[in-house]
């Protein structure tokens, strides 16, 4: 048995994975992992490896998500579902302050006590990249979101290297997968019925050491076994780049990102915005499932007596008419202007704002769009007709 250290690799069988979960729970972590629920693979509190979706595959395409049971599938052969780390670090609704009136005087009470530390099992490369993007937004842009910071500092990440992609995945185009990175505490690569576990941090080494001290049998991986494990996501990436042998779909997604910022910004008057608007329902699904979208609104919510008021932060979407309301009217009243705002922010002006793309190629916005609108298809259509912008100078500003 080799002592776990950052950079070392160890074999875990399902019993070892259970002991890892147990070690995290003993340390006070709320452990969350993928589970089958409501017809999808979602992130939920996890106590046992038996709750993981072993034998389940997700078949995803534009506007389509189906689970299929396959006895040959492993524990992590599904890809990303509707949930991401965003749901836990930046919840859809949270109370950020409370106020109480007593004898006519208002006092402010602070937001609820911090959540217990969170450990998330099964995080993919695209979602680690999304976490790094949200870190820039919430921690690195001159304003620190204290609630996010408190959760982020105690977050424990058990990543997974993908060995299968869905038809909607294009992480390889965005440089965000399928290998797990840029940072994790532990990373698993499923091989046969066991997991090669790479230690990525001192905290990861300490948790593995706890599991071993509690009786877990974890043998060290040999150099050849480490090479084989590293080859799993590398082989998948090669197949994704070659657009073959990955999925049933004849044309797996990919995105040409060359000069994408300038491409979009010089095509603000392209007729494609009206074409996509004729299909878009402005339902906001794409922004809600996107692991990097960060817009929110704040509302005061009073009880019936009017003596207690909670200030709540809720996710907001640039597809809502109210999101761009200024001086009594919306400055983006058409669906075309709202879709253009979303796409050009995500793939162009985000680069100016945060020095990174706002997209990691997770494919969620394609899968969960009820009419199957596909960002890779929309951008390809604009690229194919670059320069065909209409001369309509009266369009609203994005
Ligand atoms: S824009 Fe779509 S593919 Fe890109 S990160 Fe957001 S949900 Fe994923
Ligand atoms: S692109 Fe699709 S998911 Fe997004 S708002 Fe339009 S219809 Fe809804």
Give the tags.
4-stranded antiparallel β-sheet; 2 domains; 398 residues; 7-stranded mixed β-sheet; single chain; disordered C terminus; binds iron/sulfur cluster; 13 helices; alpha+beta
Poorly predicted ranges (pLDDT <50, ≥5 residues)? 390-398
Approximately how much helix is present in the residues? 25-40%
Rounded radius of gyration (Å): 23 Å
Largest sheet: 7 strands, mixed
Total number of domains: 2
Gross morphology is: globular
Q: Which secondary-structure class do the elements indicate?
A: alpha+beta
Gap between N and C termini: 59 Å
Give, in order, the helices and strands: EHEEEEHEEEHHEHEEHHHHHEEEEHHH
Strand order of the largest sheet: 1-11-10-9-8-2-3
Number of strands: 15
Mean pLDDT: 91
Helices, by number, come to 13
- The fraction of residues assigned to DSSP E strands is 15-25%
Short description:
Helix content is 32%, strand content 22%. By secondary structure, it is α+β, with helices and mostly antiparallel strands. The protein has two domains: 9-242, no CATH class; 260-384, no CATH class.
